[in-house]
């Protein structure tokens, strides 16, 4: 998801009526209010659908913690050696499933984009302890945090991008925060998906590279200066964890799209980048992190099934040998489709995965936090050949350092709530009933 403030297109015209929270506020055929109620920002998800989303999310998690970040590099290194020798190896694919610790079956997980931005170790440990206690196995965290201006000490950033000299922050408020996430995941036997850049401008993203090196969000995929720095950043992150048992997969980007591009642009970029990652780290899997637009066999011709939605052909990308499995996301409300349309989205992707002999991961989905809708997708995914797992967007908890709740973006499911029972407890029981 374009988590929040993000990827936002501000509508220029002020209209007197204001749309309420999460209401539609724009789109090709839309005629209602185009400005949002206080605290919400009108965000373009596609040409057909703009939605009022909370405008302040970015500050929530980061500013609340006051505990000093501590160095954890040593912990990561020493603990990885131990966990590898006692486990059955790195997570890998096994047919249409993930083999994790020797068990090839269906896995459920969640998204915690902010986990690596927490500055209190105890908060990270609490989150992973809660997640692990529930039976969720996979957690996706943002492995990027790009800036064009170095923030004051105490604010987490991973990479400063500038034509006159970029910097990768390996310090206490830099990649050491990601180190702690990896070491805590190791201790709690959680497997991570870590990505390297955002299509959207929250936490920098492609826009931060464009600001530093020029071009635009479409030329980024072929711009030599941007790609050189992107690969340098990938190397800096991957080389820290090549022997960690906690990495499920590296991920090229969050929701890459290439507007107006031939589908070969993303295909070539994904092939080259995944090959580069495999050359750095042959131990771990690699995937794209895309929304799954443009599967060309099956579907109903709606916008998400077209290759122009993301500027790529999801089905053709399955051919890339250095990608181990396929990802897709599901947000009918943002895409102008219906909740039941989501069923077709799942079965179409799964069929292509079966055909390509690669697992499919539904790695993000949301429908205004409505479990009556989303539990149907979870059950369908569990029962559909080709599906290896699902991960709801997004995880919520209460952080011990501040006794405060993590970000609520309209799709947050908080640990140990009634929603949690529906989204997680029931689903884990169904998985256990099927696989023992
Ligand atoms: C990006 O720049 C290229 C080259 O100037 C141009 O052809 C293309 O239309 C631009 N795309 C976007 C999305 O701005
Ligand atoms: C994300 O991708 C789309 C398609 O290229 C583009 O229109 C949009 O501007 C991108 N977001 C950012 C923040 O660059
Ligand atoms: C199955 O895979 C082949 C390539 O191996 C491809 O040509 C064909 O279009 C795929 N069919 C489906 C339904 O995905
Ligand atoms: C979850 O909630 C129940 C009561 O609703 C409580 O007994 C239990 O201690 C909670 N678990 C955690 C880990 O907070």
UniProtKB/TrEMBL annotation:
Any single Gene Ontology cellular-component annotation: extracellular region
PANTHER family: MANNAN ENDO-1,4-BETA-MANNOSIDASE 1 (PTHR31451:SF39), PTHR31451
Protein name: mannan endo-1,4-beta-mannosidase
Signal sequence bounds: 1-23
Keyword annotations: Glycosidase, Hydrolase, Secreted, Signal
GO molecular function: cellulose binding; mannan endo-1,4-beta-mannosidase activity
Major localization listed first in the record, in broad terms: secreted
Superkingdom in the source lineage: Eukaryota
The reaction(s) this protein catalyses: Random hydrolysis of (1->4)-beta-D-mannosidic linkages in mannans, galactomannans and glucomannans
Entry-linked SUPFAM superfamilies: (Trans)glycosidases, Cellulose-binding domain
EC number: 3.2.1.78
EC top class named in words: hydrolase
UniProt organism field: Oidiodendron maius (strain Zn)
Similarity annotation: Belongs to the glycosyl hydrolase 5 (cellulase A) family.
One GO biological process term: mannan catabolic process
Subcellular location field: Secreted
Residue span(s) of domain CBM1: 17-53
InterPro entries: CBD (IPR000254), CBD_sf (IPR035971), GH (IPR017853), Glyco_hydro_5 (IPR001547), MAN-like (IPR045053)
Gene3D superfamilies reported in the protein's UniProt record: Glycosidases (3.20.20.80)
